């Protein structure tokens, strides 16, 4: 495993490349306020964050990534367009200890805030990182959470079901269990049927929710029970979408062949992104596309996602990133700006370079 000094020296090399591309270096605090941030990360990161308490500042967390604090800083003080870079430690609890799964490691990253041409910004972030790592012959894979969200939004079902499925896109097992229930392939829980049949009448209210909140919840369950099942054809199309893997250049045609009109806008954005990647010299034939790529990473990604990985599947991605437009809206109090970024693990790069 690379020493901290070697990881930082490798990271400094990439940091200089990002500075040369016009990025301003930013250094968010290692201790971040926990209450606001934990809700912005996915379940995986929330479960792995190091959280502590300060008598004056309240609940705090050791920085699990840079993107959220960088967005906070930009939305509070930044002009646009803007490019940022950073280098420093992040902290995440790990189930598997060892060289590939350390709890404290370096990240070096590059973020672009620019509303002029989002697809060109996607291509810039990916291409700069891929070019910096070209000597390692990594496997590059891209996806697009926006395509999945558009497919869910286009389902012929009630709004509550679409909202629940959209929330669980990042939890594949939960998502597909919900789809099976909404399609009538598995029954609803027995307890839910009893509640809707009136078994609650005369029973005391127990718990922290008010009677009004519980009645509203029961009303939503009743609407769900009364809704028609999602058509088997729609379930099959979504299953085919989530399973799609191909060369990136083939992706638009393969996606359109699925017969999902709701994703057309997202597919058109993918086409523009691929054109921008090709213009930057990226070989689309060697670039993989997976429709489900990114489903188990940060929940704030809402569009383009990517990873560059070594041949050893036991290693974490050497680099990863994506688009997070909605995060800027959440942290900007209603203001927003299209934003995309990516990070490299310089310690892992140092290890791989040492093996070459």
From TrEMBL:
Gene Ontology cellular-component annotations: cytoplasm
TM annotation in the entry: none
Binding site for L-histidine: 65-67, 92, 107, 111, 295, 300-301
Alphabetical list of InterPro entries matching this protein: aa-tRNA-synth_II, aa-tRNA-synth_II/BPL/LPL, HisRS-like_core, HisRS/HisZ
PROSITE patterns reported in the protein's UniProt record: AA_TRNA_LIGASE_II
GO molecular function: glycosyltransferase activity; histidine-tRNA ligase activity
Keyword Transferase applies: yes
Claim: Nucleotide-binding is one of the keywords in the record: no
Keywords: Glycosyltransferase, Transferase
GO aspect biological process, one term: histidyl-tRNA aminoacylation
Matches recorded under PANTHER family: HISTIDINE--TRNA LIGASE, MITOCHONDRIAL-RELATED, HISTIDYL-TRNA SYNTHETASE
Quaternary data: Homodimer.
Name of the protein in question: Histidine--tRNA ligase
């Amino acid at each position: 495993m690379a020493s901290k000094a070697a990881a930082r020296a490798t990271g400094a090399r990439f940091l200089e490349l990002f500075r040369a591309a016009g990025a301003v270096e930013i250094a968010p605090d290692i201790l971040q306020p926990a209450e606001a941030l934990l809700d912005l990360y996915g379940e995986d990161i929330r479960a792995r964050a190091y959280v502590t308490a300060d008598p004056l500042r309240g609940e705090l967390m050791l920085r699990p990534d840079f993107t959220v604090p960088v967005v906070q800083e930009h939305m509070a003080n930044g002009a646009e367009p803007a490019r940022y870079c950073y280098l420093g430690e992040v902290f995440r609890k790990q189930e598997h200890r060892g060289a590939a799964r350390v709890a404290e490691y370096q990240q070096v990253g590059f973020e672009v805030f620019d509303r002029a041409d989002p697809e060109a910004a996607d291509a810039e972030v990916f291409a700069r990182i891929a070019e910096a790592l070209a000597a390692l012959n990594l496997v590059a894979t891209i996806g697009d959470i926006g395509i999945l969200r558009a497919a869910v939004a286009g389902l012929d079902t009630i709004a509550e079901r679409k909202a629940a499925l959209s929330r669980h896109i990042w939890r594949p097992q939960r998502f597909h269990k919900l789809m099976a229930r909404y399609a009538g392939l598995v029954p609803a829980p027995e307890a839910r049927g009893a509640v809707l049949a009136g078994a609650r009448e005369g029973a005391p209210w127990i718990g922290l929710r008010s009677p009004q909140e519980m009645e509203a919840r029961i009303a939503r369950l009743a609407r769900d029970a009364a809704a028609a099942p999602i058509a088997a054809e729609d379930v099959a199309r979504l299953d085919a979408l989530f399973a799609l893997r191909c060369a990136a250049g083939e992706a638009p045609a393969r996606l359109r062949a699925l017969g999902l009109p709701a994703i057309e806008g997202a597919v058109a954005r993918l086409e523009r992104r691929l054109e921008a990647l090709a213009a930057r010299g990226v070989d689309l034939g060697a670039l993989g596309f997976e429709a489900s790529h990114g489903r188990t990473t940060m929940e704030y990604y809402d569009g383009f996602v990517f990873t560059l990985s070594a041949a050893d599947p036991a290693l974490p991605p050497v680099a990863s990133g994506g688009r997070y437009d909605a995060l800027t809206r959440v942290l900007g109090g209603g203001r927003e700006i299209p934003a995309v970024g990516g990070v490299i693990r310089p310690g892992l790069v140092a290890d791989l370079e040492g093996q070459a």
